[in-house]
Write a structure and sequence with these properties.
Layout: E1 3-7, E2 13-15, H1 19-28, E3 32-38, H2 42-52, H3 56-63, E4 71-74, E5 79-86, E6 96-103, E7 107-112, H4 117-129, H5 137-150, H6 152-172, H7 176-207, H8 216-282, H9 297-318
Parallel strand pairs: 3-7
Antiparallel strand pairs: 1-2, 1-3, 4-5, 5-6, 6-7
Helix pairs in contact: 2-3, 4-5, 5-8, 6-7, 6-8, 7-8, 8-9
């Protein structure tokens, strides 16, 4: 059964109306009726068409489990708005969920596939003092959209934290799980971008007075939601840039590690190359090889091999091909500029002993 709330002009709030009471509230034109549908069925669709007279295409969008693009359709007496938020039930990759809103003169109908924190937050305020319903249907619809958009921001903030963490991991300890996190972060930001772009245009239409159902007093509140969405879009773009930078850093770190590994292998191969040459020469079974009859030939060859190992290893160590420990950082540049190059900085005279604030306290 749909959850219903009916706010009358005298401050009375009625809940859980039956079909007859809903129809009576609509026909009276008084007060404000809110009907909330969670995972609507085909029977709920017939109820919306017969009681409210909604277009079957809009009702079809409510019943479908597929995600639709954010939009606003004007049906004259009411608006049909599809707005997207974040599905907080999914933790692996950020996914979006949609909220369908029918906005009329004295009614608001909301439909969503699962429970939404934003809708529950508005419901709690309605049950507390009916504040969201006091000023009319357009303000109640704004409350739903505002709560849904505001609930995106914590996810964007968490994505920003993850982007900073993976950038550090990509530099210091790149692992396959780091690459997986970067790719999931990139997919998440892309999914958010796909719904934010059309949603921004949709909210712009709601905020500029294009529809008569939204009063002039409510436009500034819709513009405020639009500003929030613009900020979220900018933050999400920053996350996308950071994830792309993290991916480039990860690939560069892996390439550097591979180069270091190949450098060590090349050094080892270079050390043993002369030893292999000597062993190959004296491993040939020619009959006339003068060195085979020398009494100290065996020890001479071993001494030559040992000397070749020591000399080659010393050469590679001194030239940095093989490092026993990480190379120490000689200098870490600071980002502070010379104060004398700043406008407003005044060099203190030598005879001036008055106490002044330190230049380190100045912040531009």
């Amino acid at each position: 059964m749909p959850r219903t709330s009916y706010y009358l002009t005298d401050g009375d709030l009625r809940r859980d109306l039956d079909d007859a009471a809903i129809d009576e509230a609509l026909q009276s034109g008084r007060g404000l009726l809110w009907v909330d549908l969670i995972a609507p069925s085909a029977e709920d669709g017939r109820f919306l068409e017969s009681t409210f007279g909604f277009h079957h295409l809009a009702v079809e969008d409510c019943l479908s489990r597929r995600l639709h693009s954010p939009k606003v359709d004007d049906f004259g007496e009411h608006l049909f708005v599809l707005v997207h938020g974040v599905n907080h039930a999914v933790e692996d990759v950020v996914q979006t969920t949609e909220l369908a809103i029918f906005l009329g003169r004295n009614f608001v109908v909301t439909s969503h596939a699962a429970r939404l924190y934003s809708v529950e937050a508005v419901r709690a305020m309605v049950e507390d003092d009916a504040r969201p319903m006091r000023r009319g249907a357009d303000f109640l619809a704004h409350a739903f959209i505002d709560a849904l958009i505001d609930n995106i921001l914590p996810t964007i903030d968490r994505m920003t934290e993850v982007a900073e963490e993976v950038q550090e991991e990509a530099i210091h300890k790149p692992q396959p799980v780091t690459l997986d996190t970067i790719l999931r972060l990139n997919r998440s930001s892309l999914r958010v971008h796909r719904v934010i772009a059309p949603q921004r245009e949709m909210l712009n239409r709601l905020a500029r007075g294009e529809f008569e159902v939204i009063s002039q007093q409510a436009l500034i509140f819709y513009r405020d939601v639009y500003d929030h969405l613009v900020r979220i879009e900018d933050l999400n773009q920053t996350v996308r840039d950071e994830s792309n930078n993290a991916l480039s850093t990860y690939l560069s770190s892996i390439a550097i590690q591979q180069n270091e590994t190949m450098k060590v292998l090349s050094a080892v191969a270079s050390i043993f190359l002369p030893l292999t040459l000597v062993a190959g020469v004296y491993g040939m079974n020619f009959e006339h090889m003068p060195e085979l009859g020398w009494p100290w030939a065996y020890f001479g060859v071993l001494a030559f091999m040992g000397a070749a190992i020591v000399i080659s290893t010393w050469w590679f160590l001194t030239h940095g091909w093989i490092r026993v420990r990480p190379r120490p950082v000689v200098h870490v540049p600071r980002f502070a500029v010379d104060p004398n190059a700043l406008l407003g900085h005044r060099r203190r005279p030598a005879n001036d002993r008055a106490p002044v604030a330190s230049d380190d306290d100045a912040q531009g």
